[in-house]
Amino acid sequence: MMQQTIPVLFRVRIDTQPNEVVCVVGDCDELGNWDPHCAVELGRDHRSHQSEIWSREIRVKSADIKYRYFTCFLKQPDNEDDKQVDVMITRWETNIRPRRFHAFGIAGNSSDYEQESGAAIFGRYDGRQKIGKGWLTGQTEIQLRLYNNPIVMWKQSRKRQRYQVACKTMDLRYTDVSMELDDEDSHDQILSPRTEQNVQISVLNSDFNEDLVTPRTAPQFGTLYNEGDFFIFKAQSFEPDNMGFTFNFYEESAEGSTDPPRHVGYAYVLPINMKDTQNIRSIPIHGVRHKPIGQLTVDYLKIKPLKDVDLRNDMSVTYAKHWKQRPSLEVGHRGMGSSYSKECAAVTENTVASLNAAGGHGADYVEFDVQLSADFHPVIYHDFEVCLTLRGKKKKDELQLFKLPVKSLTLDQLHQLQVNHVTALDKENDLHKEDEDPLEHQPFPTLQTCLEQIDPHTGFNVEIKYPMALVDGTHEQSPFFDQNLYVDIILTTLLRYAGNRRIIFSCFEPDICAMLRLKQNKYPVQFLTSGQTNKWTFYQCLLTRSVEYAASYSLSQDFMGINVNSEVLLNRLHMIQRIKDLGLVLFIWGDELNDPAVIKMFKNEGADGVIYDRISEFKTSDNIFKMEHEAKLQLLAQMGVLTNGSSTSAETVVNSRKLTHSQSEELSFVRTSTLY
User: Fold this and answer.
1) What is the DSSP letter of 469?
2) DSSP labels for 43-112?
3) Which of 92, 287, 297, 375 could bridge across to 150 with cysteines, CB 3.0–4.6 Å?
4) What is the pLDDT of residue 258?
5) Hey, how many other C-beta atoms are within 10 angstroms of the C-beta on 331?
6) Stated pTM of the model
7) What distance in Å separates the CA atoms of residue 193 and residue 178, rounded to the nearest whole number?
8) Which long-range contacts (CB under 8 A, 24 or more apart) does 452-456 make?
9) Residue 428: what pLDDT?
10) What is the pLDDT of residue 47?
11) Cα-flanking dihedrals φ and ψ of residue 229, to 5°?
12) For range 218-237, the mean pLDDT
């Protein structure tokens, strides 16, 4: 007997770019089971004479479905035997709860629909407006960065000139390039291989000008480069080995002039120039007569999709930009605190015991550091090096300390070490002391172990350790793992074992943050900034040394927020509200937070989270997520849908047979809002 189907008209109002299409995806077979590659494409509704309305009637088997709308570019398979269409998502509805259709009609407030056409408004439902950007579903993103005054013209008269920079992509499979040998004063542009797609540009600055840091299509005649600017050009492709870039340079337009700016030269960045994941290249700038007239310094980054296809995220839910307003969250630094500061923690930092103890003392999140062992296991440890104990050949009782990179030791070797912190090199130590600590107190627990053994109500602020160049010319650790490989391995562990745990990523290395954001759509990312301080040698990277640049970069890369050194903000408290006004979530870390008065001050100023060492001394309340969980269970008990009558047990079973439709909606909200 054939199962009865229900016709559902999906209809949404949205403005689209050229070649961009609108799709619907949902939790049933007919809507692709949240897989964007299996979503259903809608069509422009010409009957309404309004091209921005997209619709399609789809017959579904279920009387209760959940769904979302999204926009994308579609690439048909080159091979006829390959039926999967490549989907490059540009925007999607990111409300925690998806849209819902049930037998009584499509749920939603009347304000969520266009009254005249009966079309849903893209991104708006349940009284909220939530639209997120896409992630890498199979394509690669290439970013080209210009900074530190990268344009050098050799002719003296041109050195004083400012230039507008335009960038376009090239599809190198189409090489019918025709060059016009115009004279040097010609306004004509050099023709290049067929443009694959528009390039997005962000201009970072130190003035918090958010209009410039929002990625936008690069203008035809480029954007004026000013001294100190930080340009980021972005493009994505499913064929990155065939994608090149053309830079065109125009003299700055005279104020008030309506004439097009004068074209003076061009430069090519080709795949052969971008063999590594990240590097810096100097390429020649050619004049319109094709003779070199200068050089351009380009910093490039290639971000590949997560290698494990089965773990690439679906569209059922995302927390990447979701932040529920609460009192400031309190985060245990390395668990119970640093073991090597003036106020040493009672439990060794970055161990299972330390993380569990911090959660037991009410920490809402615990912050810890993750890096890879030589055999590619994500382990919890702060420093890039460990000190090994060496025994002398002649004098057996003569012991010495020797530094060795963590990345050069396997997981088994790390677990067999009697570990000394690098600060031990400068101290008197009893090197003969036997290590008798139980397993949970041992260093180098794996990330998987922590995910499995720490109380699930305790959120994880996972700082990804990746070495960087310092301003004094030294490097924290070089060479190191390839960035794409490094992030993929850590993400794979998180996506497999995190379950419903709250996760926030953070990192000082801006490229790692960009990868964390684009390789997955589920967890939020915060960019760490240390500022310029006399406490330690700060990083060469300008983005980490300025709150303004850190905020600009985070806006340009669609991060959830920034994580700022407390020393930087102490004398600039007004910056806290400015950061919040930009829509960024702000966490604060640093030695100053070892003073409870400073913690209170930052919380009163509106910080979303404070990270500090002495959580057992300063935290006065229980974990906020645990308290919210108990309150929600009590709500379910009042609704009369708990089978065992208990409102406090985490293992309470809900009797779905007793739920009305409204109760089912509320239960769905309770379950999804348990996170974040």
Assistant:
1) B
2) EE-GGGT-TTEEEEEEEES-SEEEEEEEEEEEE--SSTT--PPEEEEEEEE--SSPEEEETTEE---GGG
3) 297
4) 82
5) 26
6) 0.90
7) 9
8) 452/497, 453/352, 453/356, 454/352, 454/355, 454/356, 454/359, 454/366, 455/356, 455/359, 455/360, 455/623, 456/499, 456/500, 456/501
9) 53
10) 60
11) -70, 160
12) 93
